[in-house]
Amino acid sequence: MNRIQSPSNPEIKQIAALHRTKERNAAGLFLIEGPHLLQEALASDLVKIERIYVTERYAQTSEGLQCLQRAAQRAITLTELSEQAFSKAAETETPQGVLAVAALPNVGLDDLPANQIVLFLDRVQDPGNVGTMIRTAAAAGAGGVIVADGGSDPFSGKVVRASQGAIFTLPVAARIPSAEVVEWAARKRLPIICTSPHAGEVYYETNLSGAGLLVLGHESQGISSEMTNAADKLVRIPIIGRAESLNVAIAAAVLLFEAARQRATPRVMPPEPLST
Question: Which of 170, 188, 206 is the last residue of a domain?
């Protein structure tokens, strides 16, 4: 196993550069930090881990030994870092002694299923919201997630951590212009379903049991006019109390799990009126 002592080592500087979106995109790499996320990534076929870095302290734990064994079985390069070098490389304030460098998944629109619900994040800005929405989409059985160009980077450390590893369990297409999403949905005959506080139809009155593109928008600006104009359906989540609106991640959870409920419970159409 290789060892690096100095925080000034060029390799440490390259890892630290991956804290920034521009450098991640240029290198085609992102960071996975912490034992839980690394275990999820190692179990996934959607992510390719290139290198793993550990501290001596972590490598001597039972969890660390298991991690090293799994990495060795997959021929992943292992490097031990000094505590100082690891602190420089890590993004979190209290590093847990293990991180990995992985290739950014190359997921395009045509890699997403056209026979399931796909979640489209239309310029959602907060990394915590984006990570939570990816996690919720995975939990509700969605087929994939699209993150619009201009939204929070889904492969930033904050988003990956907020997803709790769910980002490794379903395809996520990143930095996709809205016009391309609209064209893809039309080509795949996916109905576009947008949320709007002014919609006449309530979400549970809408048929969400089939395939579709479910759109949630910017935290303060909402869904773009481009997506609203392209929508096949506008639905609203009724607000009963005095709150002005729901957090966008909560709204996504309400709609995604309503879609899951409808898939599990076939819709019963009302009987035809008897002829007289």
Answer: 188
